[in-house]
Write a structure and sequence with these properties.
Structural class: alpha/beta
Mean pLDDT: 91
Order of helices and strands: EHEHEHHEHHEEEHEEEHHEHEEEEEH
Number of helices: 11
Helix content: 25-40%
Low-confidence stretches: none
Strand order of the largest sheet: 1-4-3-2-5-8
Number of strands: 16
Largest sheet: 6 strands, parallel
Length: 315
């Protein structure tokens, strides 16, 4: 898969290099959840049938972040994660359109004519709730009308699981309320964080539980504070672990920004500066303050045992 960065207006060189018959799935696709996968999968299958490339068009930064509207608090899948997942779905081209205030003011007509038709999109595939253009004036049926014989449009119905529509907003809500299993069910996979191991206060090592302190690589939706059973990718190897996400109230007061600390089971090597990929498998408990270090240590051991049991049973 090739990633192509686009901005409006499209340059002559972009049009010359990439314009041509293609099928394009269009949307924000934050989370690349099961509903998104159904839209993208439809595009991949149709492109194969027609013998043309399959493209996905997404927007970066997130429109809610740029416009400062709604409840945007980060991405479910920052751009790097999104690129990797799109590649795994069989996409040929990922168009990353620069989203800005000026871009948000484009009319639906201009977007279709000067972005989609200019690129040679023959079939656009969107979800049932797709909105585009100035103030979201355009919707899926608008896209169909504006295609006007030059571009076909397929509208994919909602993806429903256990009677519930799968959506990014539902996943965000579940993560932030500590309902990790629900979020993972809607995603169709464990929620993933990625970061670089940085120096911490090294307190975990002094109490027998060394931790990798992460600086996240991207603006993620931060799940509820607490302790999680996780799998971590370290130097190409997946390892079991237990993660504390929070403010460490036993040791500190008045801290609001959460830290992300992973204790890797059966592992004690120097990994400062290494990148860690962390899949959150299960929510174990809420973060709380302990009256003594001894009680904290006992609870950490219990959490590690719980995490091992969960992870072994979920192989």
């Amino acid at each position: 898969m090739k990633t192509i960065n686009l901005s409006y207006p499209l340059s002559a060189s972009i049009i010359e290099e990439y314009a041509g018959p293609q099928v394009a799935a269009i949307g924000q696709f934050d989370g690349v959840h099961q509903g998104h996968a159904s839209v993208i999968g439809s595009a991949v299958r149709l492109a194969e049938q027609q013998g043309v490339p399959c493209a996905v068009m997404t927007f970066h930064p997130h429109p809610k972040d740029v416009m400062k509207k709604g409840n945007y608090e980060g991405n479910l899948t920052p751009l790097k994660e999104k690129q990797e997942m799109m590649a795994g779905l069989g996409v040929d081209f990922l168009y990353v359109v620069e989203f800005s205030e000026s871009f948000s003011e484009l009319s639906p007509e201009v977007f279709v004519k000067e972005m989609l038709i200019a690129l040679g999109v023959k079939t656009a595939i969107v979800g049932f709730d797709f909105r585009f253009g100035y103030k979201g004036e355009g919707h899926a049926e608008t896209l169909r009308e504006l295609g006007n014989g030059k571009m076909n449009v397929e509208i994919i119905p909602p993806f429903v699981q256990e009677g519930e529509k799968v959506s990014s907003s539902a996943i965000r809500k579940a993560l932030q309320s500590g309902e990790l299993e629900e979020a993972n069910r809607l995603l169709g996979r464990p929620y993933r964080l990625r970061g670089v191991v940085i120096d911490g206060d090294k307190r975990g090592r002094t109490i027998g539980f060394p931790t990798a302190n992460l600086r996240l690589q991207g603006k993620y939706v931060v799940p509820a504070k607490g302790v999680y059973a996780v799998r971590s990718l370290v130097k190409g190897e997946w390892l079991y672990g237990v993660m504390n996400m929070g403010v460490k109230p036993t040791f500190k007061e008045g801290v609001t920004a959460p830290s992300f600390e992973v204790h890797l089971l059966d592992f004690d090597h120097d990994i400062y500066g290494e990148e860690l990929t962390v899949d959150l498998v299960s929510y174990i408990r809420a973060e709380r303050k302990f009256p003594s270090i001894q009680e904290l240590v006992a609870q950490i051991q219990a959490d590690a045992d719980t995490a091992r049991s969960i992870l072994e049973s979920s192989k």
